Structure formats: C-alpha cells, structure tokens
Fold this protein.
Amino acid sequence: MKILVLNGPNLNLLGTREPDKYGTQTLADIETFVKDEASKLNVEVTFYQSNVEGELVNKIQEAKGNFDGIVMNPAAYTHTSVAIRDAILAVNIPTVEIHLSNIHTREEFRKISLTAPACIGQITGFGANSYKLGLIAINNYLLQN
Ligand code: DQA
C-alpha cells in the first residue's frame, strides 16, 4: 500500500508554532513517528508539505495512479479551499482528513471544513497521533474496499 501524507500551510513551522495548540513535535518528528507505524503496517508513506494551494492541488493530481490513499492535513486551506476539495473528488483517491487540534472546539470559522466532504472521514484533535490514526484508518479502509 502506498500512502501520500499531504500537509498544508504553516505546518513546516510545527515545533515552534503555537505549541499550546499544535504540540512541540516538528513535522520531521511526526514523519519519523508515522513512518515507524507505516513499517509495522507494511505501508509505504511519502510526506509532502507546501504553503502554496496550487502545489497541493498539483500533488493531489499527480497522486493518481501513484498512491492508493491520501492522509491530508490541509491546515488553513481546510476552511477555504474549493480547489483542494475538487482535486480530491477529481482523482477519486480515498482520503482521510486529519487535524492536530480539534477544529470543532475552536473559532467558528475553523468548524467548517470545505475539504472533509470529499474525504471518507475526519480525525481531529489527537495531536501528532491524528497522523498515526489517519494512517491506520486509510490502511484499514483500503484493505476492506
Ligand atoms: C490545523 C487546524 C487549522 O484550523 C489550522 O489552520 C492549521 C492546523 C490542525 O492540524 O489542527 O494550520 O489543520
């Protein structure tokens, strides 16, 4: 199984960015943590991060035929990006949306995800564990469908 883990804007700053909300692990730390779980599941994981909406759309389009599933933290684009939602629908690759924080307990504008309706499900609020849970969820889904 080949899984793309997509990360949106400002997630490159994890570790120092609002640690009370997003924890102290860097994205590189999370990548190591997720790859450790991936090796147990016999899953191949590729991490990608961009601050640019179009680059995330390009990556989703390029995933067609190259990845079986996507785990994505669209970050702020969760709440704004019709383009990312449409890209997921266009490639029709099973995708799990994840968030470090629980977006439903935060500001009103964060409670709305434009991207989640294009996904098979959403995992939100478990810190770095959301990535691991997202990987387990997509792997189970792909094994069963
Ligand atoms: C986030 C939540 C978003 O609202 C925010 O813009 C982020 C991170 C999370 O992982 O909790 O950048 O996606």
About this structure: The chain has a mean pLDDT of 98. The pocket of DQA is lined by residues 10, 73, 75-76, 78, 99-101, 103, 110 (CB under 6 Å). Residues 85 and 117 are 8 Å apart (CA to CA).
